[in-house]
Amino acid sequence: MGVHEAIAELYKTFEEAFYRGDADQISLMYTEDAELFAPQAPVVRGRQAITELWRSIVGPGGNKIRVEIGEVQETGDWAYEVGGFKAATPDGRVLNSGKYIVIWKRQPTGEWKTHRDIFHWDIPPAEPMAHRSGSPKIELMGVQSETSVGVLAASVLPPARK
Length: 162
Prior knowledge:
The chain is an alpha+beta fold. It has one domain (3-156): Nuclear Transport Factor 2, Chain: A (Roll). Helix content is 27%, strand content 40%. The protein has helices at 3-20, 23-27, 47-58, 148-156; strands at residues 30-37, 44-45, 64-75, 78-88, 94-106, 112-123, 138-140, 143-145. A 6-stranded mixed sheet has the order 2-1-6-5-4-3, with helices on one face. The protein has a two-stranded antiparallel ribbon with strand order 7-8. Helix 3 (47-58) packs across helix 4 (148-156). The longest helix is centred in the first third of the chain and has 18 residues, at 3-20. It is globular and about 40 Å long. The model is unreliable at 128-152 and 154-162 (pLDDT under 50).
């Protein structure tokens, strides 16, 4: 299987895991030392931190994401990919959309994993809900979060619209 086909299969798994709210499955796409670069947020470093970010983003699941692969170029054990994405509620209302560049690294097993994940908005997410007294609470796609990862996640995807 070529790199384009391998990436397409990984995104199919990603889209299904996003819908189920399965951050652990999503994080398996990343190398242990991966970095995720989101707009107006600090760099998220390492698979464990990326897992926690995705956990805050997907919550219990239910929303959908669609990834459109554009260009893919491979050289040896490295590849880069350019594409776009759109997140939507179950009834199809667009939450946000954007574009990305992913740097993929072939593992010794032959499997491709995301090593660097960089994206930006075309349709930005809505502002997160106001913080309450004490610890910050944000709603992200209908999920309450009190963690600093949740604060970052709020900059990544918006609350679900009702």
